[in-house]
Structure formats: C-alpha cells, structure tokens
C-alpha cells in the first residue's frame, strides 16, 4: 500500500490481499461500506455450544455467518479465513499461545469458524453524521474493556461481556445511539452510557484490549457490546483449542454495511 | 374453559394448563400480548446443524430460545414443553409417526428443543390497526404452503421454505408490511405479496397445512415466512427422530410481543 492510498477506499479483496501479504494494522476505518467481523474458530464438538452462546448473547455476539466445519471461505468471504486477517490469536486451554499474521500451521479440518459482527461497521455512518470516531482520527486501536456483566452461559461456555468505548460529545450521544441502533446485527445501540464504574471498569486509561484514547471535556464515554467477548469466553472456559482475530484486527467481509440495517 | 372466556384474555400459564389438560385447538388469537412459538426438538448430535439451519434461514426460523439438552422448560417457558402445547407431531426418519397432545412417552434426555418465532405474535398488532385476520375471524387454522424456494442448507439439513398466507385488502398491504416488519424476531415483513405462482403455489384453496380461508374481492394474498419450515426440513432430511408442534397449534410463551419489537 502506498501512503497515498486511503484505506477507506479499498475494496475488501484489496485489503485482504494486503493482510495476506503481511501488513499488520487495526482495521477501523478500512473499506468504507463493508461489514467487518470478529473471528472465533472452535473444534466441531464445541460448535453447538458456541453457536448457542452467541444466540443467547446477541448484543456482544451477533452471528453474521458460520462456515462449514474445516471450510476457510463462505458466503460473505471470498477469501481465506486462515490468512486474510491482519493478526490472529491462537489459544490452547484458554491461554494465549501465539499472536501471528497467518494461522495455517495451527489449522485443523474440524475447526468451525464463526464470523461475528463488529462495531467498526457502523463507524462510517457515525462519521458521515459528523460524529468524530476518536480512534480513527488518532490512528490507534479502539479501547476495549472486560466488564463485570456476565454473559448467559451455554453448555460449559461462560465469561464476561467485553465492551468497546468511544467518547462522544454530550449533545451527540442520542444521535450515536440512534445511528448505531439501526445496525443490530453488528452490536446495535450502546449497552451503557456514561458510567464506567457501573460496568466494573476502574480506569478508562487502561483498557484490557486495544489502546486508550483521549476524552475531551464535554465528551461522555459510550460503551458498545464488543465481539472480543468470545475471547473473554475462551479465557474463562478454556477450550482445548481456539483461534480468534487479535482485537481490532478484523476480518473485512464482502457483505455491505447496509445488509445489516434494521428493517 | 367456559364458552364465555375470551382466549385472547388468558395468561400464557392459563392457556398452557388448558392444553395440558387435553384441549386441542389452533392458538391464533390466544393470549394477546404474548409471543407464540413453533417447536422443533432434535437429538443432541443434530443440534448444531439445526441451530445453523435456523441461523442461515432467519426469516422462516427466527430462534427465540434453545433449551439445554433434555430440558423441558426455560427462560421464556415456565412450563413443560412435552405437555403444554395443544398438539404435537412425532417424526421418525422423516415420516409422521404420530399426532398426539402429549409427547412424554416419546421424550428422550438427549433432545434439544428449539423455540422458533411465530407470526401469530404480530396478528394482535395487525388487528389493533384495524386489519382483519381472516383465520381468527373465521375460527379456522391459518393456511400454510410448501414453496419452491429452497432454504440455505446446514450440514445434512435441507428443505423448502414454508409460508403462511393472510388475505389483506389492497389498501392495507403496506400497513401490514410495516406493522409485521417491526417484529423481525417472529418472521417480520412478508417474503412475497400477491403472486402465489411465483412461489410455486398452484391452488390457494388447498394449503399443505392448516385450513383454506376466504379471499374477498379486492384482497391480495400476502405471504409470510413460516415456522413450519423446520417440519418441511424434517420431511426432506429425515432425521432419526424429531418432535414438533402440529401446524397452528403453538407453544404460548411467557415472553411479550414487545420483546421482539425491532429497535
């Protein structure tokens, strides 16, 4: 990618080719108009519990698609789920074993890939409405936090909800709620506005994932359910193997934002 | 139930007690304000494919809840899924084995129960808007039809979409679309308006499930995706065992219609 290329104007195929050839970067702001996705791959014997966990926790885990066992592409991914994300995490027994740009050496034919909606999808509509998305402007990763709010369990799978945070001017909070609420398939409206302590978040300056961001005077921290929640579930539930994206380093799908607009 | 009791005014618990004690009737119009559900129970080894089939076909198969393997009650059902519906169907290898008001003798501890949204849920809002629901007025079961539109398969599970039909005056079709569209969790907006042949339906007077209804001059047949679709899947895919509701004879849940309003 030349410096002159605006990541927002790339097609999903162009972006995935860059990541496949080694570029590592958070993907907020990339490929305007296209849906981004969280990735979590688990062995087939856990796939029902994982899908049920997602079904029971639709705010943090809105399922966009599930690939066939062993499959590496699908209806909204004309690519390879093992190479086309900028960065992955490989988990053994709930412990982070590796953070790598390619997971082909860890792949198994019994892995089932879940593509889970990502709030980056509605950031372009926020920007189009004149609402600044701080981590895009500052070129950093979105801040994400473990909360004290438990997910509804499924089988042996359990864990806390993870949230992403964007500081929003007080007079635009209602607009941010309305606009993101139009996209329930990619986390939808915020789960919490303005009170980090109520979620068990002690220090906004120390996110559990991603980077801290500036909060300007007059801005309110607004919290959206986050697709890193399955990673918190992996840490809590300790499956023998799981492969996920690295937080903020998403799968850019061929689906359009507008595919996930509420009716 | 005395004849003086209006089924619309019963609580879900009262209705389920009547069905548990042997009353057999279609449930359209019952328990105003409460969500009704289709039921499909499959063995645990098919549960992932069933949940994936539903996830891939959200218009006919919107999942309201999934019970734990062997469980007979859950978050939106303070009752017993084996006895609290008016009528069930038991399927072996895709063939209808029995139609019975109680399935306790067929129950197995590895069965997983899927509660799938039902369009009866948005009939009360249609009626409240002055749109007559013909099968309620006439005291018959809603007409349902197999279509030529295939569902997206999942594993070995496949089959055609089933639709329900309501005749709507031409000048109220748009209202019926808007009102039902507010409830995407219970089939939402129609999948087709006005052209049965395009769905492969030859004769509206001969539904595949339920009863035919009068279509008055100036009324247009409007088709909604239907939760009998999993039964068409059972017929096509022939799992060793499945238990479902009998078409139109639904599970009345403790959830409210308003729980499924779009954001």
Total number of strands of chain A: 11
* Helix content percent band of chain A: 10-25%
Instruction: Tell me the fraction of residues in β-strands of chain A, as a range.
Output: 25-35%
Corresponding CATH architecture of the largest domain in chain A: 3-Layer(aba) Sandwich
Total domain units of chain A: 2
Please summarize the sheet with the most strands of chain A. 7 strands, antiparallel
Coarse structural class of chain A: alpha+beta
Mean pLDDT of chain A: 95
The CATH C-level class name of the largest domain in chain A: Alpha Beta
User: Helical stretch count of chain A?
Assistant: 6
CATH topology of the largest domain in chain A: PSTPO5379-like
EC number (chains A, B): 4.2.1.-
Family (chains A, B): Belongs to the D-glutamate cyclase family.
GO molecular function, one term (chains A, B): lyase activity
Keywords (chains A, B): Lyase
How would you describe the overall organization of this protein?
The structure is a homodimer of 263-residue chains. In chain A, the strands form two sheets. In chain A, strands 1, 2, 3, 4, 5, 10 and 11 form a seven-stranded antiparallel beta sheet that branches. A four-stranded antiparallel beta sheet of chain A has the order 6-7-9-8, with helices on one face. The first copy, chain A, has 263 residues and is of the alpha+beta class. Chain A contains six helices and eleven strands. In chain A, strand 3 and strand 4 (95-100) form a beta hairpin. Helices cover 18% and strands 26% of the residues of chain A. The first copy, chain A, starts with 11 loop residues before the first helix and ends in a 7-residue tail after the last strand. The A-B interface holds A 44, 47-48, 51-52, 55-56, 63, 65-66, 68, 155, 181-182, 184, 188-189, 262-263 and B 44, 47-48, 51-52, 55-56, 63, 66, 68, 155, 181-182, 184, 188-189, 262-263.
């Amino acid at each position: 990618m030349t410096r002159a290329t605006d990541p927002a104007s790339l097609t999903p195929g162009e972006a995935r080719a860059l990541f496949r050839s080694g570029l590592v970067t958070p993907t907020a702001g990339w490929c305007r108009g296209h849906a981004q996705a969280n990735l979590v791959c688990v062995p087939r014997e856990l796939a029902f519990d994982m899908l049920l966990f997602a079904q029971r926790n639709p705010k943090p885990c809105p399922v966009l698609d599930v690939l066939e066992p062993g499959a590496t592409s699908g209806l909204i991914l004309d690519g390879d789920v093992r190479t086309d994300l900028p960065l992955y995490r490989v988990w053994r027994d709930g412990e982070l074993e590796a953070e790598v740009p390619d997971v082909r050496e860890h792949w198994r034919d019994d892995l089932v890939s879940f593509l889970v909606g990502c709030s980056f999808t509605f950031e372009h509509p926020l920007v189009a409405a004149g609402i600044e998305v701080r981590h895009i402007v500052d070129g950093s990763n979105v801040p994400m936090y473990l909360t004290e709010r438990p997910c509804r369990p499924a089988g042996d799978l359990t864990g806390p909800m993870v949230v992403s945070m964007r500081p929003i001017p007080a007079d635009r909070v209602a607009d941010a709620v309305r606009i993101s609420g139009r996209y329930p398939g990619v986390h939808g409206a915020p789960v919490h506005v303005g009170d980090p302590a109520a979620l068990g978040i002690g220090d906004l300056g120390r996110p559990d994932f991603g980077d801290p961001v500036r909060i300007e005077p007059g801005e309110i921290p607004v919290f959206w359910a986050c697709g890193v929640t399955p990673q918190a579930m992996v840490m809590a539930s300790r499956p023998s193997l799981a492969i996920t994206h690295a937080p903020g380093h998403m799968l850019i799908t061929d689906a359009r934002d507008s595919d996930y607009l509420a009716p």
